[in-house]
Specification:
single chain, alpha/beta, five-stranded mixed sheet, two-stranded parallel sheet
Length: 163
């Protein structure tokens, strides 16, 4: 009879990643366009569909690939219907999206982002603060002066040429 497995012991016997292995991790290619999307305070299926339609409209005539920056700093709540419409959008644009970067401090909206990310073919990086997300984007070569400017009025989507 085999000995019962002990997860704590198994963790110690797993091989660690070497520097060479860590160095061989590949980042997604840098996209042609950075798409900044501001999410609403409360995400439900209706405003999610409206936002996804706005994204589709903004990208309709843009050639090349995209990196999405989801600014959810003001999000308080998100429902599963909101996540579902973003899953649909992710499937539609999967061939053109190289990566998605999120700044979402709220636990429920962040959980919805993880739900979409787990089913996505694109690389997702989800941060709790805007500073962390901006640092990541800056390191990837996306940050320009336009990203630090707040989106004003009714504009929720802005397509920017990467820096």
């Amino acid at each position: 009879m085999p000995a019962p497995s002990n997860p704590e012991l198994e963790a110690f016997t797993r091989p660690l990643m070497t520097r060479a292995a860590v160095g061989s991790l590949k980042l997604p290619p840098v996209a042609t366009w950075l798409v900044r999307v501001r999410h609403p305070e409360h995400g439900d299926e209706l405003n999610g569909r409206a936002l996804c339609d706005e994204i589709r409209q903004a990208l309709k005539h843009q050639p090349g690939t995209f990196c999405f920056f989801y600014d959810g700093m003001g999000m308080v709540n998100a429902r599963i219907g909101y996540a579902n419409v973003f899953k649909e959008l992710d499937r539609e644009l999967s061939d053109r999206v190289t990566e998605v970067v999120c700044a979402i401090p709220g636990p429920i909206p962040r959980m919805m982002a993880y739900t979409v990310a787990t089913l996505s073919r694109s690389s997702w990086t989800i941060f709790r603060t805007l500073a962390e997300a901006e640092t990541h984007l800056r390191m990837r070569g996306y940050i320009g002066p336009d990203l630090t400017q707040p989106l004003e009025g009714g504009v929720n989507v802005r397509v920017l040429r990467r820096a």
